[in-house]
């Protein structure tokens, strides 16, 4: 194993390490945009079931769809990544999620909502695993570029980004609920709710964020499996 450990790091060192590792920096930017978009939608889906469809009890299918999607797709990830590469797997997963957003925006029925859930939540684990593996590869990339292997800081980045995105969820829910007039606990027949406003903030804006996240990833993240192999080979030569 290639190893050239650096000293222990503090919070300032974390940001310094991020800025010195351009691939980790761009990947982190792409992922935080993706994560915020995803939590913005998942945090407000209960409003969709309660005030758009008018049946809050159906919200439970959200977790079921995501769980089934994970069971099916997670075991397939190694095969998909080997055949197509993580870059294409992540791209395909996000495109699928964008299809889900289209279904959410266009439909107010249960079938359209279930379809949106399948396309949105099932591929999430493919994005997660693609990012996780690339972050892991960026450990060697950072060592190759800076001469110091800072594994702890690098691998802590993804959980940190998830926590940051998660911290937005309550605020996003409150903002969307108030903006769309969906502040009650039950659907009231005949009451006018801001469905268009709700869909704008819960589906359209997150979809735009995901498109930006994908663009950043495709344009700036160059650490493919092949590039990682080249980096490791060069490191092995240096450390002989």
Description:
It is a single chain. The chain is mostly helical and 240 residues long. The chain has one domain (11-238): MFS general substrate transporter like domains (Growth Hormone, Chain: A), CATH 1.20.1250.20. Helix content is 78%, strand content 0%. It is built from 11 helices and no strands. Helix 6 packs antiparallel against helix 8. The longest helix is centred in the C-terminal third of the chain and has 29 residues, at 151-179.
Concise overview:
Pfam families: MFS_2. By secondary structure, this protein is an all-alpha fold.
Provide the β-strand percentage band: under 5%
Q: What is the total number of structural domains? A: 1
The parts where pLDDT drops under 50 for at least 5 residues are none
CATH superfamily: MFS general substrate transporter like domains
CATH topology: Growth Hormone, Chain: A
* Structural category: mainly alpha
Q: What is the name of the CATH class?
A: Mainly Alpha
Tell me, rounded to a whole number, the average pLDDT: 90
Question: What is the annotated CATH architecture?
Answer: Up-down Bundle
Largest sheet, strands/sense/barrel:
none
**Assembly of the depicted chains:** single chain
Percent range for helical residues?
over 70%
Radius of gyration: 20 Å
The helix/strand series, from N terminus to C terminus, equals: HHHHHHHHHHH
């Amino acid at each position: 194993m290639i190893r050239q450990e650096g000293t222990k790091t503090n919070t300032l060192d974390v940001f310094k390490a991020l800025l010195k590792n351009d691939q980790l920096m761009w990947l982190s930017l792409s992922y935080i945009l993706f994560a915020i978009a995803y939590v913005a939608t998942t945090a407000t889906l209960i409003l969709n079931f309660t005030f758009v469809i008018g049946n809050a009890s159906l919200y439970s299918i959200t977790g079921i769809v995501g769980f089934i999607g994970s069971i099916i797709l997670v075991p397939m990830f190694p095969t998909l990544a080997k055949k197509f590469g993580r870059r294409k797997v992540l791209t395909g997963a996000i495109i699928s999620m964008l299809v889900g957003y289209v279904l959410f925006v266009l439909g107010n029925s249960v079938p359209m909502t279930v379809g949106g859930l399948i396309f949105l939540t099932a591929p999430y684990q493919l994005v997660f695993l693609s990012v996780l593996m690339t972050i892991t590869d960026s450990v060697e990339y950072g060592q190759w570029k800076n001469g110091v292997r800072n594994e702890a800081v690098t691998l802590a980045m993804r959980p940190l980004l998830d926590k940051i995105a998660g911290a937005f969820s309550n605020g996003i829910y409150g903002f969307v609920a108030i903006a769309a007039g969906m502040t009650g606990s039950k659907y009231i027949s005949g009451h006018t709710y801001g469905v268009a406003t709700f869909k704008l903030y819960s589906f359209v804006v997150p979809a735009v964020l995901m498109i930006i996240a994908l663009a950043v990833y495709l344009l700036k993240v160059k650490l493919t499996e092949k590039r990682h192999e080249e980096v490791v080979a060069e490191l092995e030569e240096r450390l002989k």
